[in-house]
Design a protein that fits this description.
- Helix content is about 60%, strand content about 0%.
- It is an all-alpha fold and about 190 residues long.
- Strands 1-2 form a two-stranded antiparallel sheet.
- A hairpin with a 7-residue loop joins strand 1 and strand 2 (about 115).
- Helix 1 (about 1-15) packs antiparallel against helix 2 (about 20-30), helix 2 packs parallel to helix 6 (about 75-95) and helix 5 (about 50-65) packs antiparallel against helix 6 (about 75-95).
Length: about 190
């Protein structure tokens, strides 16, 4: 499932409007798994993988990235992008981890008994299908990222103020109302 987490981080970062560095989204997509080691391991799985906890960890991580002045993270769009990459971890884990398996299922909140999950990774066919899907998504995301890299570099140069010229800049980056500013998404 790590391939799926990385694929979503690369896919989100591939868009020219997203100025967040790739490393920021990669760390964000695996943040709940990183936190397992710091928060007591799998015995306290809910502290890192609970629904409410992932929402809060995403807000904390996006806030830290904005406070550290990471490129693009201080805008509302950038903050939401960083938060959504952390939240995407939950969506993929709900697909793969089992429902109502104490200690392994996705708990709704640390103190509750309710858990979520389809458990696709715990059947042979489900495991094969989810892993093939995740690997395919990762390959597609890398190809898309590399294809859009020139557009992204232009958008970053405009964001940094290195150029105000909109010559040869894709329409997705231009602001049609005022050619002196970057698109409102940036």
């Amino acid at each position: 499932m790590f391939a799926g987490h990385f694929a979503l981080a690369v896919y989100v970062t591939s868009f020219p409007q997203v100025l967040i560095p790739l490393w920021t989204n990669i760390v964000g997509c695996i943040l709940p798994d990183i936190l397992i080691g710091f928060l007591g391991g799998y015995k306290d799985f809910a502290l890192s993988h609970g629904v409410v906890e992932i929402i809060l960890w995403g807000l904390v991580y996006a806030g830290i990235m904005a406070a550290c002045n990471i490129r693009g993270a201080r805008t509302r769009f950038g903050f939401l992008t960083v938060w959504s990459v952390v939240f995407s971890h939950l969506i993929l884990d709900i697909i793969s981890l089992p429902f109502k398996n104490p200690g392994i299922g996705i708990p709704f909140i640390k103190t509750g008994d309710m858990s979520l999950g389809f458990g696709l990774e715990y059947t042979q066919l489900g495991f094969a299908l989810t892993e093939l899907f995740c690997l395919g998504l990762l390959a597609y995301s890398i190809i898309l990222y590399r294809k859009r890299l020139p557009e992204k570099r232009k958008a970053i140069a405009i964001f940094k103020g290195e150029t105000t010229s909109f010559k040869n800049v894709p329409e997705t980056i231009k602001d049609t109302s005022n050619e002196d500013t970057v698109n409102a998404y940036v």
